[in-house]
Structure formats: C-alpha cells, structure tokens
C-alpha cells in the first residue's frame, strides 16, 4: 500500500476527532457572534461608544440641544447648585421653541442662527445670545456632556428619532473642539390628561408608555446610556397624593409647573447627570421656590418627596415607582 495513502487513512479520523469538537466549542460560537454583530451593525444597534460621565472634574460644562422643555428641565438648577455650594457646573441651553431633532439637524446643515443661548449656574440664569447657530456653539465652546431631546409630541414615536439623532452626533463629532464628550438624552414627560393632543396616544398613560418605549429603543440602538428620566419622575410625582395638583404638574397642560414641576425636573437632571460627576447628594438641597402659601411652592413639606421622585426615576428609568412615605 502506498505510504501516502496509509497516512491519509490514518490521519483523517484523527483530524476529525481533534478538530471537530474544537470547531463546535470555539469557532462555531465565534462565527455566530460575528453574524450577530454584523446583523446589529446593519440595524445601527449601539452605533455609538459613549464615554462614561467625567468623575470629579475641575469644572463641568453641559450643553442642552433642545426647546422649551429643555428650559423647563434646567430652570431650577441655579437654586439647587447654590444650595449645594456647587460653583463649578455650567449648563448651556440652546433653545428653539418646539424644535425636533430633524429640525436641529436641518438648522445645523444650513448653519442657521435661529437659537437663543442660555446659561444656568449657581449664580442664576443668563441669556448669552439672542441669535446663534448650533455650528457656532459647538465649534467655539468645549463641553463635557451634550444632552439631546426630541420634540415632546413626537417623543413617543421612535421613527422620528432617526436618522437625525445619529446625524446630529456625527455633526457634533466633526465640529466640536471638545477632546471627549459624553452624550445624554432627556426623556420628556406626558402631557396633562386635558391636553388637546393627548388623544394621539389615547391617554396620559399611553403617552408615557410610548415615550418610555421610544427611549428604550433609542438607548439600545444609539448607545446613549445616560438617560435623564424626566417623564418617569413626573409620573412618579403624579402618583403621590401629597404632590397632586389640578393641572397635573403642568402650567398649561403641556409645559411643566413653574415651581414644583421645574424643581422636580431640576432634581432629575442633577441626579442623572451632575451628581455622578461631583458626588453631592440632592437630599442636601434646601431650596424654597415660589410664593409663600402658594399650592405649588417647593418648601420643607414637599421638597424631600420631589427629590425622592427624581431619585427613584433615575434608579428605574422605565416604570413608575411607589414612593415610600413614612407615617408622621
């Protein structure tokens, strides 16, 4: 018998015995993982590798690309920062009323100076510009964190998020002076049950659930893992008897109440984005907002409840939490 033929007859079973199990254990799972990765990439799943929030920075500069809901979310921060003795945080809100992510991207591509720019810190609120473009802001200033937000009526429809969110991130990346930036997303709140457009989502609960579902999908597909859960914080408060108001924590069935509502959103913003960076507890804040005796005033009787609604929303972004209220 030919020596080469005998070697082949002897070696073939050996190769099968040695390498087949190795293929099943090692290479087959690897190939499956690669196929899953390619499928994920095809769906734009996790297209962003988001850096973690900066820890104990010398200063913290945050840009909010948004609209009136962004103003509502930021307005109570000066009082909170001042009360906590935080002088190193600056929040900048690029404001254009009713603006969606699609419009933000179109304004960027057209280099349109359609925004007002506000600054919030421990000294208060200050308007920096009446007319400025997104391009100018991100090519002039450096930011540690950038917050995106969808137009509130479209917040429950993920199809309106893309491709504009990914395009805005790309635009920021190629324009910014910042060496590193963490991206965050503001989850907006459901309207009052009396709002004329609530029927689009059937009711307030339906609108809240749709916003949660859209934000969850956005997080999975974009990789933006820092969520400011204002919508969940508001629903938490709406389910606490001591915090219920006739207007359901709004001032016009749409925008948030000026005192309790804005304070709740400020606590949520602080707890989700600022506290992890600087390590100061929102429970140490002793802000009082609003006129004495007014039903929507933030004071010693309701402040801790509002803080807890924010804390539990940050701990559980996607569903309403029961706020523990001990007997007095």
What's the number of helices?
A: 10
Listing every helix as H and every strand as E from the N terminus to the C terminus, the arrangement reads HEHHEHEEHEHEHEHHH
CATH topology: Rossmann fold
Strand content: 5-15%
Give the oligomeric state: single chain
Low-confidence stretches: 26-42
Could you give the count of β-strands? 7
Distance between the termini: 97 Å
Which structural class best describes the helix and strand composition? alpha/beta
Question: What's the Cα radius of gyration?
Answer: 25 Å
Q: What profile does the largest beta sheet have? A: 7 strands, mixed
- Morphology call: globular
CATH class: Alpha Beta
Question: What name goes with the CATH superfamily?
Answer: SGNH hydrolase
Per CATH, the architecture is 3-Layer(aba) Sandwich
Question: In percent, how helical is the residue content?
Answer: 40-55%
Describe the structure.
The protein has 328 residues and is an alpha/beta fold. The protein has one domain: 3-Layer(aba) Sandwich (Rossmann fold). It has a seven-stranded mixed sheet with strand order 4-3-2-1-5-6-7. Helix 7 links the parallel strand 6 and strand 7. It is globular, with a radius of gyration of 25 Å.
């Amino acid at each position: 018998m030919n020596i080469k033929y005998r070697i082949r007859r002897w070696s073939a079973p050996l190769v099968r015995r040695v390498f087949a199990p190795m293929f099943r254990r090692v290479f087959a799972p690897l190939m499956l993982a690669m196929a899953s990765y390619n499928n994920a990439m095809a769906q734009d799943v996790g297209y962003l590798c988001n850096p973690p929030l900066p820890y104990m920075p010398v200063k913290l500069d945050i840009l909010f690309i948004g609209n009136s809901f962004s103003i509502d979310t930021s307005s109570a921060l000066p009082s909170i920062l001042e009360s906590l003795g935080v002088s190193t945080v600056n929040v900048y809100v690029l404001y254009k009323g009713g603006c969606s992510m699609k419009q933000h991207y179109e304004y960027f591509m057209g280099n349109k100076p359609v925004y007002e720019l506000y600054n919030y810190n421990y000294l208060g609120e200050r308007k920096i510009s009446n007319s400025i473009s997104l391009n100018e802001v991100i090519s002039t200033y450096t930011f540690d964190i950038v917050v995106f937000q969808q137009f509130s009526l479209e917040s429950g429809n993920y199809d309106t998020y893309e491709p504009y969110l990914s395009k805005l991130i790309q635009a920021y990346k190629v324009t910014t002076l910042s060496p590193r930036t963490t991206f965050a997303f503001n989850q907006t709140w459901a309207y009052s049950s009396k709002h004329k457009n609530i029927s689009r989502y059937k009711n307030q609960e339906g609108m809240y659930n749709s916003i949660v579902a859209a934000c969850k999908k956005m997080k999975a597909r974009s990789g933006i893992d820092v969520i400011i859960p204002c919508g969940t914080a508001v629903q938490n408060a709406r389910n606490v008897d001591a915090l219920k108001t006739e207007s359901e924590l709004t001032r016009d069935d749409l925008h948030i109440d000026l005192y309790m509502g804005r304070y709740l959103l400020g606590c949520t913003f602080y707890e989700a984005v600022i506290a992890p960076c600087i390590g100061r507890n929102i429970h140490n804040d002793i802000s009082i907002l609003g006129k004495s005796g007014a039903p929507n005033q933030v004071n010693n009787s309701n402040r801790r409840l509002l803080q807890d609604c924010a804390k539990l929303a940050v701990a559980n972004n996607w569903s309403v939490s029961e706020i523990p209220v001990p007997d007095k």
